[in-house]
Every structure is written in C-alpha cells, then in structure tokens.
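Sanity check. The docking grid for dTDP-4-keto-6-deoxyglucose depends on where the pocket ends up, so I'm generating a full predicted complex first rather than guessing from homology. Inputs follow.
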Amino acid sequence: MGVEVPSANSDVLPQQFRIIGDERGGLISLECADNVPFVVKRVYYIFNTQADVSRGFHAHRDLQQLAICVAGKCRMTLDDGQSRQDVWLDSPDKGVLIRNLIWREMHDFSEDCVLMVLASGHYDESDYIRDYDSFLKEVSHGKK
Ligand code: T46
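Predicted complex below; grid placement will be based on this.
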C-alpha cells in the first residue's frame, strides 16, 4: 500500500504514494496487491465540476474505492455514522482508501480538478445508499 497517514477511522485510510520522479517530472504507479489493496474492476474520473457544486452524498454497501485528485483539488467528507472527517485531496501523490459503509461527500472542487477513483466492483446502483437515515440504520444494524 501507499504510506498510510493516521486517520480517526480505520475504514477511511488516507494514503501517501511514492513518487518515482526524475528530472523529467513525476510518475506514480498504482498496482494491485502493492499500493491498491483490491482487484480493480472499474476506474472512473470526475472533471469539470461546476463551482459551488458538491457531489456524493451516499455510501456503498459492498465497495472499496481509492480516490485521488490527479489534477486540482477537492475536499472529501467521510462519515462512518459516528464521526466525520475531512480529507483534502490536493496532490496526485495523495489518496484516500474508502471501505464499505462510509458516507462520502465531495466539496470545494477546484476548476481544474480531475478526481480519479479506482473501484473494487462494477457500477451497481443497488449498492448505493443515497439516504442518510437509511445509511445510519444499516451501520447500526452491524452490517459492516
Ligand atoms: C463515489 C463518488 C466518489 C455510472 O453510470 N457509472 C459509474 O461508474 C458511476 C460512478 C456513475 N454512473 C452514473 C450514475 C449517475 O447517473 O453517473 C451518474 C453520476 O453518478 P453519481 O451521482 O453517483 O456521482 P457522484 O459524483 O455523486 O459519486 C461518484 C460515484 O458514483 C460514487 O461511487 O463514491 O463518486
């Protein structure tokens, strides 16, 4: 894995990736079983998010994701049902690993932000919990 940065919640793991840089510039490699702790089944990226728009506002029942701003920055708010934490993704060598049943919101996108997400599963709308009270119920029912 990347070097883990301390976090209040073990289901939210900020990551610091090693830059394999030389005089030509930087390079970061993401590799399954090395710095990506799951088999990647999907990659998507979010860009051109309009100023003052926030995204997310959901949790996943059974999905691990690694999020990295490969350009620009945004703030991720991550909530395990008991506490919230903000993680700034503001450099291509920083990421956050988000496990199951974590409510996420993305705020404060810079104009040039490209948020890339590696996911352990294919897109499946039935895996989303898009209502916060339902999320709290699933967490309290110990489905983690
Ligand atoms: C997440 C955060 C970080 C697809 O058809 N395929 C996909 O792989 C994805 C990710 C989305 N979609 C469709 C579903 C919606 O109709 O694209 C539309 C926008 O998705 P959504 O509103 O869920 O986007 P965000 O930015 O709120 O959330 C996304 C991911 O969906 C989510 O898994 O963790 O980014």
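Relevant for the grid: The mean pLDDT is 93.
Also worth noting: The chain has one domain: 3-138.
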